[in-house]
Amino acid sequence: MNDVRFMIDGKECLGKPGQTIVEAAKANGVYIPVLCHFEGLKPVGSCRICTVRVGGRFMAACTQPLIEGMAVENTAPDLEDMRKSLIEMLFVEGNHLCPSCEKSGNCELQALAYRYQVLAPRFPYLWPRRDIDASAPLLMLDGNRCIQCLRCVRACRAKDGRKVFAAVDRSRRVKIEVDKKLAAHLSEDQARRAMDICPVGAILRKETGFAVPIGRRKYDAVPIGSDVEKGTGR
Amino acid sequence: MAQEKDIVLRYPKDPSALLDVVRDVQNRLGHVSEEAVSRIAAHLKLSEAEVRGAVTFYHFFSLTPRGASTVYLNDSITSRMKGRTAVARAFEEEAGCRFGEVSPDGKVGLFPTSCIGMNDQEPSAIVDGVVFIKLSPDRARAIVRGLRAGTPASGQVTEFGDGANQSTLVRAMVSNNIRKRGPVLFGPHEPGAAVRKAVSMTPEQVIDEVKKAGLLGRGGAGFPTGLKWEFCRREKAPERYVVCNADEGEPGTFKDRVVLTELPGLLFEGMAVAGYAVGAQTGILYLRSEYAYLRARLEAVLAGLRKEGILGKNIAGSPGFHFDIVIKSGAGAYICGEESALLESAEGKRGEPRDRPPFPVQAGYLDRPTTVNNVETLATAARIVVEGAAWFKAMGTPKSAGTKLLSVSGDCARPGVYEVEYGLSIAELLDMAGAPEAKAVQVGGPSGTCVSKAGYQRKICFSDLPTGGSVIVFGPDRDIFEVVENFMEFFIEESCGWCTPCRAGNVLLKKKFEKVAQGKGTEGDLRDLEAWGKLVKATSRCGLGQTSPNPILTTMQNFPELYEARIQKGRDFVPEFDLAAAIQEGCAAANRQPACKEADHE
Fold it and tell me: pTM here?
């Protein structure tokens, strides 16, 4: 099939039919920040960090397929401020204590906050009361740090296909729950994958931590997105 | 326990049966116990977490007991205006528990709920599926006493409403309150005429007629109905579906309740016409749980239509055209009025909206091409097929053809349903409804626009003031801030929680709004409200978050003087934190008197 021609902030780009804006942008060396999106999983557009503007309309670049000739605005100042607002929103709606978090330096939310130079959030902290579930043998689930990205819900399945994680409740009370029976039988690999796929420190492998010292972690040296911008991909 | 097992085993081992099983368990046992969750999960091959996820999504399902009898008292602003507070207190005193709890003897549970579609006869409540309207504190007490004494809710309804509310299959105290009968919905209609006329045409001709009539979706979004049908028909697929969205949940709307009560035959004909047009054999009526009291009669009407050959095989004398309708039920979630969330719910899942594309006309119910249309839209389409596009187009305005059903409630002498031509001004409507002193009119429900007197010459139509049907009138003594707060709380509660701006943004917006409402706002706070409102609208995933800041934004626009009067002008910063209250709280906890003068401050 023919390539799809489109533009991002005036730059002429080519993409493949069926690709989303985020995927095609990446292939063209343009970074669109994402948080809930994870390559290989069906996109769900939950965090909205990847919001772009096309023809005056806002849309999530992780779920929107390319359309021939579309002109995507990605770095307009008002768009970037919206993204910064959404990052701040995620910080104030949960309880994120970076200095003591095992994920610090590997955390995508923290890395985005650095990239967007979040100092103090413009919103008041909500200080919600959230649960910690440490009942599974290998995993700990800390609701305080969860951002409802649904990566674990999409990625982690038992052998028979049943979902290990699921969203329960709704509205501001929505939370991710781990299925107690299925969690009891997770393999080391499954537990490791659940932790790795979590962009924040909500899912942690128990009994081990800080194997790589803070300071030598993924985003300690280079900002998130710089791999895409250097054209190296991930 | 054998009980759970017996119920669960009756259902097919199909995950799409999830909500049906859960509903059955909830209705029989009063809650969905751990045992039930475990059995359902095993039966449907789902994880227990997933089952819990579905149960906890819906307001009328619960993992914990809700009492032998359960009272759901409407919490809409109109209910509050009509005396809800005193009724709620009476329920609490008589039951011996607060709202959100079950009485100590386990006999009665009290819970608040979002608008139940009775805004023209508030305060209203649903007790064990039975609707009670125009409640007084005395009636509330009597209901609880009756339930305790063993008289079921249904046995406590002795007076019935008008029309089909008196039918033996309904027996509801609900009134239709039809105030103005227009020529489209309430015009003379010979049963079966629409389906017979449709099958005498080709499907393309039917679509063309609806397109030429200029019929736009009556749920509020206003998408051209004929075009939707055409898109759906054009998709290559082994089967297609027609889904009727009977989940009107916008606070203040109740016009579909009246159509479902008085014109179900016309509605079902509209569904069959749509089925013929798009090439579907199955129609699904997604009925909001609040209207479950109409279900038995709707089933009876369907049975009658089958008997007359208007539904079923080779219908209306057209060999090869088969069409039948099943009813599926919601369980208390405003978001399920959003068409893709509705489809998720109809498939037995949490009612979370889908990403588009694909659109429902491409991949809808069970991923098949599906046209989702509002109750009023389908009934109107049936009439258009009979009377013709020209007849319809002659009514209304050039761009908003035909008539619209309005649900008028609040501070007016004649609340109820009005079928009016598009282009009617707010002033004319207020005149009809008997509200000469109205200070504000909420058009389109909380997600619509709050119009001030200066806007009473504005017209109800798609290019000016569109509405799914909700019109709430506020009299001169109403506090607009209280209205806005009630609406924001509604959106916070009804957000599905999927996307950041809607889940967190609405909470933050309401917090900031409260700061202003309490007189602690500055000009900067007003700028924040506007900016945050725009942010939530721009970045939210579906129509809920894309409109939820409207109560704040449209009142700021149309009632700027109210906000000006509440803020502290000239001050750069006023803290939200109340030092005096905090000290008093601390002193109360420590059991001592405040010693410093800050505690007396303000």
Answer: 0.96
